[in-house]
Amino acid sequence: MKENIKVVYKHTDKKTLVPFYIGSGNPCRAKDFRSRKGSWKNYVKENGNPIVEILHSGLSIYEAVELERKEILKIGRLVDNTGPLINIMLGRSRCETTKIKISNSTRGVSRKKMEQSTKDKLTEHFGLKIIYEGVKYNSIRECSRETGKGRNTIKRHLRKLNII
To answer: Is residue 68, in this structure, part of any structural domain at all?
Structure first.
């Protein structure tokens, strides 16, 4: 089995030449326009198919996920008003790599008993950052706790805005 076959890629708007999405995965994923989320599909529906550029290749999944995150941070996301990218998450927050890393870093420790600094580090590295009603939250759960609204209510609201 080949381990170093992952890539990090950039999708750029053909009209404006502004990047709008950074991703990682197998090389064919970069040019696969069918299995995408709503916000990506909506963007392409309005602006046409993107220019695809492979930024990094020959990577392990760990390297790809980390480089994807760095590229997203470097360019910036619309969701947190730092740049043009429509990426919601800072890389693949729910891929197998993430699950393994979270599992290994929290093995034998319940989230409730963790030090707050450990929770903060996990949230910073893996977490979903959202802006709901003008306030930035580290997760949907935190938003729910602070606003008193149900998580599903918040998710529905974010889906309507094509944020998730």
So the answer is: yes
Count of domains observed in the chain: 1
> Is 8 domain-assigned?
yes
> Which string of DSSP letters, residue by residue, matches 118-136?
HHHHHHHHHPPPEEETTEE
Q: How crowded is residue 34: how many other Cβ atoms within 10 Å of its Cβ?
A: 5
Q: How far is CA 29 from the centre of its chain?
A: 15
Alpha helices in 16-95 (DSSP H): 38-47, 61-75
Q: Up-side HSE of residue 80: CA atoms within 13 Å toward CB?
A: 16
pLDDT for the residue 100: 59
- What is the domain-level CATH number for residue 4? 3.40.1440
Can you list the pairs that 127-132 forms with residues at least 24 positions away whose Cβ atoms lie under 8 Å? 127/93, 128/88, 128/89, 128/93, 129/79, 129/80, 129/90, 130/79, 130/154, 130/158, 130/163, 130/164, 131/79, 131/80, 131/81, 132/157, 132/158
Q: What tens digit of pLDDT does each residue of 84-103 get?
A: 999 887 766 545 555 556 56
Give residue 78's domain range.
1-92
> CA 85 to CA 164: how far, in whole Å?
14
Give exposure, 113-127, as e/b (b: 16+ Cβ within 10 Å): eeeeeeeeebeebbb
The one-letter code for the residue type at 154 is I
One-letter amino acid for residue 105 of the chain: S
